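debug: dumping io for the single-chain case to check the tokenizer round-trip. Nothing else runs in this session.
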Amino acid sequence: MARRLIAITAAIFVGCSCAYAQVGGMGTPAPSAGMGMTSPLGMSSSGTAGVPTGIPLGAAPLATPGVSSGSSNGVASATACSSPSIGSAMTGSTAQFDNSGVGIMTGATLPGSAAPVTTTCGPASAAPSASASQSSTSTPSQLGVPTIPMGSTELSNPGLSPAPCAATVVGALVVKHRFPFEAASARTPPVVPTVPVVAGTVSSDDVPIYLQGVGTVIAYNTVIVRSQIQGQITKINFIEGQTVKTGDLLAVIDPRPYQAQLDQANANRSRDEAQLTNAQANLKRYTTLGNQGWATPQLVETQTAQVAQLQAAIKADQAAIEWAQTQLSYTQLTSPIDGVTGIRQVDIGNIIHPTDPNGLVVVTQVEPISVIFTLPETSLPEIQQQLANGSLKVEAYSQDNTTKLDEGSLDFIDNEIVQTTGSVRFRANFPNKEHRLWPGELVNAWLLLDTRHDGLTVPPPAVQQGPQGPYVYVVNSDSTVAVRPVKVGQVSGGQALIDSGLAAGEQVVVDGQYKLQPGIHVTILHGKAAEEAAAQEAQRTPIP
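debug: decoded output
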């Protein structure tokens, strides 16, 4: 706009200057000797600067109207022009000059008159009197009326009216309004500001539906290895943290006292067995004599009772032997289950007692292993419905949900709801072949409840939280963004499940939302630029 105003002002200034120069050139200053060859600035062929006359280059000079050239400027070859006596402006045009340099103005009319006025210009005589070839003689009152050069238009009241400047202004305005689009097209269109963002596409796929709960890993079996006898530990046969099998020897208690008890029990049985053999022989003899009448029946019955007594004593001796053997076996502490040993509680050389609270060591079974987790009681009916159709899969993840530890199945639902928390306890078993689940570990349990087919998902960073709930920035076809409220079903596995608000294939802003407003233009970054923008956003995000 400023440029257009400057151009219009310059056009007005130049137009007014030219008009003033022409009016000034028709005054009384005397032309130089080669006026017909002067330039528009009045420079003669001899190099002498003359007064500007406004006569076009190559045109014949015209003398001042009404004044002879001989008396005014002393030039013998000058021409003189005469016009009727007029006191106001004439309008018209001049005809072409002939070979003699005479120009005839035709078509001029006096104000208020319909008759045209003709002004004739011809060669001036050397005498101060008017030339006979002039059609009329000028008077001193006509000195203000100039003769119009060839190709020019006669100006009314020259030198006294602002008509030339006004005409120039009108012409400039006409040019301005005649070609408005040419000026507009020359202008450089304004650059629309854009915001660089990272975008993602709404995808459609089979999406698993999970229920997430916090759980604790517990050993499938946990055993405190205690001694059942008292004695001194003479040998430790395991390393802390060692994986052991059922029956593996862990420690040895001094067996000598218990071996002696076993030997004594064996001796008692041997004695009783010898006595029984003798009693049985006596009973046989007494029975034969009694049949012959040589022995009384009382003697026979007494010997029979003695044999039975010795048989019972042998049984007691056998039981004592077994007890002694059992006590002797307790001198070897073995692992009752397959598992992993913990920290040793008693060192070698110490006396171990059956009443020691910590025992020798704790062995935990980690293959398989269990996880007990809780879920809201509102989820119980749906879980029971799905469980009736078959077993439900449970996945165990680390606390930050970045590492999948193992995959198992739901094994048990507690028989009551915890009233203080309104939750239900569940237990899932895992094979744990890689020992990634450890007793006492806090994990996140994901119960696979169902699978939604053709579910819509977006990257989780695309979902923003506002006063009205979650929303996303959608990239339109014209590279502008719009705010779209959405309903999020779940966020898991690096994707957010969208229940409503988006369509498959749409582009959403994943990174750079803090710079956006609805309707703003964006530039989607790709490749390395997108990675750098994501890295900067990660550094900008505060750590919770």
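debug: round-trip ok. Confidence is low (pLDDT under 50) at residues 18-186, 537-544.
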